[in-house]
Amino acid sequence: MKRAAPLLLLIALLGAGLLVVFQHFAAPRIEQRREAAAERTLLDLLPAGSYDNRPLRSPIALPAGGLLGNTNAEPGYLASLNGRPSAVLLPVSARGYEGPIRLLVAISADGHLLASKVLQQQETPGLADLLAPERAHWLGGFADKTLEAKWTLRADGGQVDQIAGATVTSRAVTDALQRALRFFDANRERLLEAQP
Q: Rounded to an integer, what distance in angstroms lies between the CA atom of residue 185 and that of residue 188?
């Protein structure tokens, strides 16, 4: 039994050593996969083939507050194709009925809204839940809009559909999308000249 203890200790130390070596060599691959998953999640707003750089590797510093309404400074991202800017991704926040709504908005270099997605929200499940699959269709209805478009909700006498029973949420999101476009318009040169 006394001879078995050192042998067991040696086996345990070898196992721990192998685990450390494995983790050391696997860590970069794990980080690459984590980064690729984050990229897919954020960059799925951009049309396929519309960029050939790695936008998330070169964030654009954006201030807190202002038109984007973000509580904290959050980065934006520049997508480019063949060395020319193709789109900008901007985070924008709004005050919904139940709390803050965080969106990511993709805007083309010529100022058209490409797409938007909800990153975080607390709206009423089943009524105004912006993460529900059927709400993606509603958000998709804003694609290709510009600042010159009509943005007034039907509930307010306009032509833009709102989420049934969730006018406050609809107004908040519509306002946030407009503010993102206004921010882009006001900062176009700086945003498009960021180094990809």
A: 5
